[in-house]
Write a structure and sequence with these properties.
The protein has one helix and ten strands; from the N terminus they run E-E-E-H-E-E-E-E-E-E-E. The chain has about 130 residues and is mainly β. The strands form two sheets. Strands 6-7-8-9-4-3-10 form a seven-stranded mixed β-sheet. A hairpin with a 3-residue loop joins strand 8 and strand 9. It binds zinc ion (2 copies). The site of one zinc ion has 6 residues, from helix 1.
Length: about 130
């Protein structure tokens, strides 16, 4: 079944659609913490299944060392982390998302005050390929 989720940033200037979301998980790396203020809950999607439906001209890209970060230049909402073939799309922007989290990445770098709940697998860095 093809599932399409809609996302919108805080100001509503940017909207997008995600088709066939593959998984929901958390990244606890220090880069995501600085980008979002805590861990990044994200949806893994093939880049060809992500498209902007409004406000693409507002989207700015921060070229960080590993994965470029894309955000709304008006309100600052984190939109997605560009991993190349896959995007890691900020889950909080998609109000109809109902996947259960299935992984925690980069747990070795998580904030000491962040207690991870649930029983999704936790990986110190990335999961073994
Ligand atoms: Zn915005
Ligand atoms: Zn991260």
């Amino acid at each position: 079944m093809t599932e399409t989720l809609k996302g919108a940033c805080l100001c509503g200037g940017v909207e997008y659609e995600v088709r066939d979301p593959e998984a929901l998980g958390y990244c606890h790396c220090t880069r995501c913490q600085r980008w979002t203020g805590s861990s990044l809950a994200g949806v893994v999607v093939a880049k060809e299944n992500f498209k902007f439906t409004k406000g693409e001209d507002l989207v700015k890209r921060y070229e960080s060392e590993f994965a470029p970060r894309n955000f709304c230049s008006n309100c600052g909402s984190s939109l997605y982390d560009d991993l190349g073939e896959k995007y890691f799309v900020a889950a909080g922007l998609m109000r109809d998302l109902d996947l259960d989290p299935s992984f925690h990445l980069q747990v070795a770098y998580k904030a000491s005050w962040h207690e991870i709940g649930g029983d999704a697998p936790q990986f110190a860095e990335n999961p073994p390929a």
